[in-house]
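Final report, results section. Input specification for complex C-07:
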Amino acid sequence: MNADLHSLTGAYALDALTSVECEAFERHLATCSGCRDELEGFQLTTARLGGAAQLRPPTHLRSRLMADVAQSPQERPSAITQLRRPRFTSKTRWLSIAAAVLVVTSGSLGVNAYSNAQRANDLSVTASATAAVLNSADAELVRGEVTGGGSGSLVVSRDREEAVVFTTGLDQPAAGTTYQIWAIGEQGAQSRGLLSPGDGGDAGKVVSWPTEATTFGMTIEPAGGSDQPTTDPVLLLDVPA
Amino acid sequence: MVDPSQRGTGRLTLVPDASIDAASASADDLLSRAARGDEAAFGSLYDLTSSKVFGLVRRVVRDPAHAEEVTQEVYLQVWRQAGRFDRAKGSAVSWVLTVAHRRAVDRVRSTQAAADRDVRAAERDVVPPHDQVAETVELRLEAERVRRCLDGLTEIQRESVTLAYYQGLTYVEVGSVLSIPLGTVKTRMRDGLIRLRDCMGVSA
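Structure output:
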């Protein structure tokens, strides 16, 4: 999965990713210094592509811009240094909740394919982000069957404005399509990213959850995802207020 | 295509452009000053970079009125977010052009149906439109360097890079226009940029 994300550096530098993948890649970028280094070189390169065809803008543009600038407040630099996600250390409570969630998501399957050791290893990777949601006092669990096979669960923390998606037994989507998940509310459907059948497994997939959203949805979309759902949902879950 | 005497270092490097280096050094200063609220420095940054920004935006969005609006949005964003620029991580010119390209592409994608852009893409005009042909020797040389580096790519690399960068196509659309698998498009974009980067002598 990481190798796949690494290969997106070029498409990202060319602004050729869909908005959904763009968000996923930016999250990856925050943790991959090799990607950031490569991207810097690529952006200097695309700047040369862009700078080669120069054209003087009309002069009225400058005066209009400078008038606007005089009215426009600047972003305070401190606002951008707060991107770090809080780290949680108490894994015990999360592991017991995760075990409970697994029982629920595995449903009648009962048997889990992973050995315990392997699962513990997988869990530790995303444990801190997932645990942060599962450990929150207001966490709520909803669950449903997926049309076409498998099931999905969602743990929502409204305090944290985050949710964790767990899925089990999902079919591989047909070639050229992908699962995409949505937070749905008065604002309509907002994409929460793409989901591969493996993604929402034991470790869960953490997504941001807008406070106004009342429904979780999953659809099958063309590869790369869509800006809005284009097919009937294969899973719809009402989220407790 | 490429002077054979430049081979042998493992990297094909064209002659560095001293004037661009000097201009970007002062652009870095101007942007850093703009980040502290210096409107005059911001005005000078505009004077130094606006032909590049407008040229790029116009090329991607085509429509002159849209190009003006997008250019205005680009510089307002640069003004508001100037504090995000990190000198250690790149040049101000590159940063401003990155903002400009993203905005131009957003505009194209929101105003034109994909099918419409496919038609434009089919025209495959890699050559800049006539009104954008550089008027000074300096610019002609830079355009020539870029063209030579593009010529050094394989056809699929070149088309993947230029359809995305100059026409604003997503990699999915590029794959459909060129009839090649999506995984191949992503890979060609990346290795195409690696080859361009090395040809241009860019060091991050």
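Chain B touches chain A through 78 residues (CB under 8 Å). The CA atoms of residues 105 and 168 of chain B lie 5 Å apart. This concludes the modelling results for the funded period.
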